[in-house]
Amino acid sequence: MEFITVNPQAKPAVALVSLNRPKELNALNLQLMSELRDAIQALDANPEVRAIVITGNEKAFAAGADIKQMAGKNTIDMLLADQFATWEAIRRCKKPLIAAVSGFALGGGCELAMTCDMIVASETAQFGQPEIKIGVIPGAGGTQRLTRAIGKAKAMELVLTGRFISAAEADRLGLVTRVVPVELCLSEALSLAAKVAEMSPLAVRLAKEAVNQTYENHLNDGLHFERKNFYMLFASDDQKEGMAAFIEKRKPQFTGR
Ligand code: CAA
C-alpha cells in the first residue's frame, strides 16, 4: 500500500484506515482508491473487525479526485476507466464506516466522507463540492448524498457555487454526526466506532442496511444519472479549461462549450 495505511486493531475490534498522500492533500487518485477498496474489502471480511474508521491528516481528509489525473481525459476515457467501481465496492461494505474529518473534505473527499455511515468532524473541517469551479460536477454521489443530507436549497447553493462550509455549519445542516476539537477528532471517531463494535455485529449490519434502504433504490438511479452527466462533461472545452486553470493556478475562462 503506497497511499494508505491500515491498522486492523486501532482499538479492540476497530480498524483504522488513514489516507496518506499528504503533499497532494490526499487527492484521490485511481491507485489510492484501489488501495482503499482492497483495504475495506479485507477488513469487511475480517471477523476480528466490527467497525472501520477512515481518516486523513490535520490539513486534509481529502481534497477531491485527482484533478491532474483527470485533466486530459475525454468522455470515453472516463467511461472505460470506470473509476467509480472502487467507490461502489466501498459503498457495499457491510460494517459501519466512520469518517474522521479534519481540514479539507472537498469534491470526492466530501463524497467519500458522505459514503461513510457517520462523520466525526473537527472544528477545522471544511466541506464542499467545488467541482463547478473546474467545469464539471460531483461524480461520486455528491449531488445525491449532499441533497439528501442537507436539503435541496442548501445543496443546490453548494453544488452551483462551490462554496465551502465550516464544521459548525455542517453540524447545523445535519451533515455530520458531531464536531470536536481537532486534537480529539480521531480518538472521538475511534471511541464511537468502539461503542458500535460492542453491539451485536449482526444487528449492526442489518441496522446499517435498513437505514440505507430509506433511499437505496432512489440513490442507485441518482448515482447512475450523476455519473453519466459527469462523464459527459469530459467532452466539453470548459472541463479542459477548468482543470488546466486549476493546475496552472489561474482563473478559468468558461465559454459554455
Ligand atoms: N487533485 C490534484 N491535486 C490537488 C488536488 C486535487 N483535487 N487538490 C490539491 N492538489 C494539489 C495542488 O495542486 C498542490 O500541488 P502542487 O504543490 O504540486 O501545486 C497541492 O495539492 C497543495 O494544494 P494547494 O497549493 O492548492 O493548497 P491550498 O492550501 O492553497 O488550497 C485547496 C487547498 C483549496 C483544497 C485547493 O488545493 C483546491 O481547491 N483543491 C481542489 C479542490 C477540488 O476542486 N476538488 C474537486 C476535485 S474533482 C472531484 O472530486 C470529482 C468527483 O466528484 C469525484
UniProtKB/TrEMBL annotation:
Membrane-spanning segments: none
Please list which residues make up the signal peptide: none
Matching Pfam families: ECH_1
The UniProt entry's sequence similarity note says: Belongs to the enoyl-CoA hydratase/isomerase family.
Can you name the source organism?
Answer: Flexibacter flexilis DSM 6793
At the highest ranks, the source species' classification is: Bacteria, Pseudomonadati, Bacteroidota, Cytophagia, Cytophagales
Q: Which reaction does it catalyse?
A: a (3S)-3-hydroxyacyl-CoA = a (2E)-enoyl-CoA + H2O; a 4-saturated-(3S)-3-hydroxyacyl-CoA = a (3E)-enoyl-CoA + H2O
Keywords assigned: Fatty acid metabolism, Lipid metabolism, Lyase
- Documented EC number(s): 4.2.1.17
Which purpose does this protein serve, as stated in its record? Could possibly oxidize fatty acids using specific components.
Q: Which GO terms describe its molecular function?
A: enoyl-CoA hydratase activity
PANTHER family documented for this protein: ENOYL-COA HYDRATASE, MITOCHONDRIAL, ENOYL-COA HYDRATASE-RELATED
Name of the protein this chain belongs to? enoyl-CoA hydratase
Q: Name one GO biological process term.
A: fatty acid beta-oxidation
SUPFAM superfamilies, alphabetically?
ClpP/crotonase (SSF52096)
